[in-house]
């Protein structure tokens, strides 16, 4: 049997099992395709042959339109740190609804409490500006840095993700982007100190800012190594360049964000995900002198938004953040490390080149013959066919993850859920192991450091 025939055989088997379990999701997808391009309005949750459609969620479980139950390791790309249906968040949102305050032409006091939480928890944050999405938070942080420095160019990590703002879309030559953006954005490999130092030295008179993720999210939860972020902080400070840290995902890893773990103080930080309690909310915050550019008293930078810091988002955000204590973070981080250790054990036992990268409650599986240390190695060594089969195989066993291999821990989880996930990974790998030998023999063995 040829490699192509082997791949077709295992794909037909696993996709066939998935399709038998999810006929209602297929029906909803077919309806959706008539009114939305490809039946989709959020590419990050679409996967082939078609995605599941969710009917309900509670704690760390979700149920799809066919009534299948899944342990939710997706958690809306790290948003639902308290799981689904948290009583405190629900009560706070209901209180706002009962007051008839879904949207207002003025603020409510709870917005101040929301800002105070961020300023109290994160040493580098002196003032905060609320937005509706992480994309908008990044966009306004970049605008603030350009206005503050009087420069235009930015440096960001290769294959990084900072939302949909044109200036940070990777690659810069993507369809629909202005060709001028290619001249404004300088790409450097993540975790490469020398490359960052050279990029700054060659362009310091034109660079307004460096923007990096706390850990590379969409590239596969790739953490900073060997003091990388501290090195970037030093080189940007020495050259009068604003350092923006994107903690939209990594903020959940420590009470003061990953920046506290790394011992750095960026000039500006982008926040999102866990800070809004599952509603549409995000923020940027940082040095007072930079943030004051947004003050109506200076009128230097205009930033408006009909639903910025709306009452529902503020209520949900405060209710969630008040529950995200150091003790809760420590517990779910330990669960994440336990999960990573268990999955690594499965790969070692099966003698395949599977890897797990991440920190604490955020872990990511890779099938790669080389160590995954940055966006380039993640993308160039990515095996989309195998990851597709692995993803559907996990779904068939009741474990819901994004199709890129992310495992995100929520507080309702315990060792029971971790054990179930490790068992599902072991069963999936056992199913795929003979086909890996035939189709991808370069993935048999151990990954050399």
Describe what you observe in this structure.
With 449 residues, the protein is of the alpha/beta class. It has 2 domains: 3-81 and 326-443, Aspartate Aminotransferase, domain 1, CATH 3.90.1150; 87-323, Type I PLP-dependent aspartate aminotransferase-like (Major domain) (Aspartate Aminotransferase, domain 2, 3-Layer(aba) Sandwich), CATH 3.40.640.10. The protein is built from 16 helices and 14 strands. It has helices at 3-21, 23-35, 75-78, 87-98, 110-121, 134-149, 181-184, 193-203, 228-238, 258-262, 288-291, 311-323, 326-350, 375-380, 384-396, 415-439, and strands at residues 54-58, 61-64, 69-72, 127-131, 153-157, 185-188, 207-213, 242-246, 268-271, 282-286, 354-359, 362-367, 399-400, 406-408. The strands form 3 sheets. A 7-stranded mixed beta sheet has the order 4-10-9-8-7-5-6, with helices on both faces. Strands 1-2-3-13 form a 4-stranded mixed beta sheet. β2 and β3 form a beta hairpin. α1 packs antiparallel against α16 (415-439) and α8 runs parallel beside α9 (228-238). The protein is globular.
């Amino acid at each position: 049997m040829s490699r192509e025939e082997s791949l077709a055989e295992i794909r037909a088997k696993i996709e066939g099992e998935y399709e038998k379990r999810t006929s209602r999701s297929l029906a909803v997808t077919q309806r959706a395709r008539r009114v939305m391009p490809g039946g989709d309005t959020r590419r990050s949750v679409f996967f082939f042959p078609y995605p599941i459609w969710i009917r309900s969620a509670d704690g760390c479980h979700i149920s799809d339109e066919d009534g299948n139950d899944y342990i939710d390791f997706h958690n809306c790309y790290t948003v639902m740190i308290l799981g689904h249906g948290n009583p405190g968040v629900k009560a706070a949102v209901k209180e706002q609804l009962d007051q008839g305050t879904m949207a207002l032409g003025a603020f409510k006091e709870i917005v101040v409490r929301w800002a105070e939480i961020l300023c109290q928890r994160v040493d580098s944050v002196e003032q905060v500006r609320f937005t509706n999405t992480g994309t908008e938070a990044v966009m306004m942080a970049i605008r603030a840095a350009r206005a503050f420095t009087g420069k235009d160019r930015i440096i960001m990590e290769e294959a990084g993700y900072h939302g949909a703002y044109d200036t940070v879309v990777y690659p810069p030559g993507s369809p629909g982007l202005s060709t001028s953006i290619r001249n404004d954005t300088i790409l450097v490999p993540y975790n490469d100190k020398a490359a960052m130092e050279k990029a700054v030295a060659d362009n310091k008179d034109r660079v307004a800012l460096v923007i990096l993720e706390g850990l590379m999210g969409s590239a596969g939860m790739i953490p900073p190594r060997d003091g990388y972020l501290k090195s970037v902080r030093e080189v940007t400070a020495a050259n009068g360049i604003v350092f923006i840290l994107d903690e939209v995902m990594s903020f959940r890893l420590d009470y003061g964000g990953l920046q506290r773990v790394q011992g750095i103080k960026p000039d500006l930080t982008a926040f999102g995900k866990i800070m809004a309690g599952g509603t549409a909310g995000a923020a940027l915050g940082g040095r007072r002198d930079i943030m004051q550019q947004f003050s109506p008293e200076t009128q230097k930078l205009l930033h408006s938004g009909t639903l910025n810091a709306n009452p529902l988002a503020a209520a949900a955000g405060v209710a969630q953040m008040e529950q995200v204590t150091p003790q809760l973070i420590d517990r779910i981080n330990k669960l994440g490390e336990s999960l990573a250790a268990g999955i690594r054990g499965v790969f070692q036992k099966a003698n395949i080149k599977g890897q797990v990268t991440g920190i604490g409650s955020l872990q990511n599986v890779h099938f790669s013959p080389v160590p995954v240390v940055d966006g380039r190695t993640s993308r160039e060594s990515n095996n989309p066919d195998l990851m597709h089969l692995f993803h559907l195989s996990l779904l068939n066993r009741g474990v819901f993850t994004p199709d890129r291999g992310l495992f995100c821990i929520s507080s309702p989880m315990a060792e029971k859920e971790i054990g179930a996930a490790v068992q599902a990974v072991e069963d999936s790998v056992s199913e795929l192991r003979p086909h890996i030998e035939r189709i991808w023999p370069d993935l048999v063995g151990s990954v050399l450091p």
